[in-house]
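call fold target=AMP-binding protein
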Amino acid sequence: MSFTPLSALISSTDRPHTHPVAIDDNGNERSWRDFTRHVMTLSHQLAARPEKEWALAFEDSYLFSVAFFALCHANKSVILPGNLQPGALTELTSCCDGILHDTRVIAPKGLLTLTLPDALIPTNDALPALQPFTDLKLTLFTSGSSGVPKAIEKSLHQLQEELNQLEQQWGKQVQQATFFSTVSHQHIYGFLFRILWPLSAGRPFMCRDLVYPEQVIAQAKGHHVLVSSPALLKRLSEQTNSDGYCSIFSSGGPLPYDAAQHSIASLGYLPIEVYGSTETGGIGFRQQTSESSPWRLFDGITASLNESGCLSLRSPYIDPQQWYHTADICELFDDRHFLLKGRADRVVKVEEKRVSLTEIEQRLCQSPWVTDAASVVLSQGGRQVIAAVVVLSAQGLDIIQETSQGKFKLSLRHAMREWLEPIAIPRRLKFVQNIPQNSQGKRQHSLIEALFTDE
């Protein structure tokens, strides 16, 4: 089956009507006929509406795909929020006109909503065929170093260039395998690897995520591909599956060498790690055949180091005429291979999710109980966790005296759930009178971290 450009996918005539597009938890298939009919139905509904900017918030990958292509053909703008927490979705009201979602996502109040699959009921009228679209406006939100979710715009050309690279690099390897995933399609990695790439090549994907390591091991079969992250691959048990996946992809952060080797024993394949970001798209990849295995740049990308020792890029997935400066400290071995050595800003990776320490502090200070806060990343039991020192307001001090410090911490963490994903909510909290600072007023992170050493 041919590899079809995104713009012409729905109008393609080389797919059999019965060809599977997606599979649900019960093994029921959504066919190519189902997919094109659903996209057509929703697209004509959206085209008749005046709203231009639409956010997508789905747990079901099939319904997400329908909504995405329907918006593209209706000439609407697409917004992907950084997470599906209620507070984060509510903040989108200032930048979108409406939200498309499935029944598993709680839509914010005060915003026009369309719920799928309810909106996919076809009319009795014959609908005209959809023509290829010429461009799209896609905005993704990701953690920014300023603490404010950062809007990243992607063009049709940029997405298509990256998909072409994935198919060129690994298309023969995955052939007509079914794609399973443990990562969300709401982020660029899952969006490309588990949705757009399989759809373009006619490979079926699962509607829902695999959540537990046992599920991942159970699906390790020779005609399956796994799109995952280090967070889950590090949690694999000693259980093994003799069949093994035909390919495993991992992204979100470097995979520890031991976890990579354990994946061979448990899942039958050495993971292909993909390095990149929402801003840059894919940058490089590797398989850890040794503890010193370097990363290799994707074709078409040129790299150098800036004065801070951070990687700078020229890439067709950004602007090929401009250098893009990352915050990733690197060592270049030659013009194609490099070693990652950490980040230079305050956007950190915890369990392979991007977390803005600045945003955590701002969210804490939104509470009437808090006047100041500083967050750090600590190592605890071999894992990284978020910790925060907090200066309480008079109201916060009164509540602690009325209840207890333990109950107060639970209440504060619960309030943070409106905006932050669970991994970003501080697991350790310490109340202080002042945040440690030097004579220039800069926070002393080493002293902040030391406040937790006696616990």
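return ok
The first helix runs from residue 32 to 47. The chain has a mean pLDDT of 91.
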